[in-house]
Write a structure and sequence with these properties.
single chain, alpha/beta, Rossmann fold, 2 domains, 5-stranded parallel sheet, 4-stranded parallel sheet, 10 helices, globular, binds phosphoric acid mono(formamide)ester
Amino acid sequence: MTTLSSPQKINGKFKGKDILDANQFSKRDIKIIFDKTDKMKKAVLKKGGLKLLEHKVLAPLFFEPSSRTFSSFSAAMQRLGGSVIPLPNMANTSVAKGESLEDTIKVFASYSDILVIRHPEQGKVLHAADITSVPVINAGDGIGEHPTQALYDLYTINESLKKVSGLNVVFFGELGRYRPVNSLAKLLALYKNKITFVSPPQGKVQTAIIDYLKARDIEFSETETIDKVIGNCDVLYVTRVKKEFMSEALYKKIQGKYVVNKKLLQKMKKKSLIMHALPRIDEIATEVDDDPRSIYLKSQVINGMYVRMALLALVLGKI
Ligand code: CP
């Protein structure tokens, strides 16, 4: 059995560190990321980017499909003057011939300055980080973590509501297999927020997350219906029902029950947010997209690139 090292706390020092789990960050670390992200955003809007990572190379190792994470990391690297090994997925690499994860990591680490890895199995990205000294960023590992997603979700909440504490945050949908929920719940736990998990009984949030919140004395509740909590919600974080992980029968049972539509919007506060890590399938009706509270296809998406620019420059020691 492989023994995994615990991810190192950041403690204000990002250079050379792996970014694997949301619990690596303190409030101070998050403030640093937010400040650097503001600078990245300004630079992109003013002149398209900054020449901070010239001659640096990023290897994106995606063992699972991705649109946003792959593209925003690639765009972030390029907007900082660095380059990206052109590998949209691992299907065209020697992984298809049976090359092991260990060998694959060692090979790509020898060509690059930073690895961004997504893997369908929880723990595999941590394992990859253990076998190379090149910094590894977790771009999503199975039902485990998606820390950079949570960082830009939190940045977007702060940008929109001007605070990250004292909020009622509702996670809505199938939660147990949705890694952004795990990571964002951990970041929200750094501040005084109240969390409500609304899910079908088959999609409850993981016990590990409940234990994490309990250990930190964070106020939370679990329920199957949204009616009683929607009126007091500041952030409604909607999740995709992951069809690929369940039987047809279970999918049919859940499908359509955890949906955001105009009727639900009428019950929400005027000053609140609807977020989704995307891809969205049918859990948010398209009639909701133009509502000013809907930010999932707007600031939430573009902030992913700005936050990832800040992280790449921090980890590579250039800011
Ligand atoms: N939010 C997110 O991780 O999207 P992708 O799966 O498209 O990267």
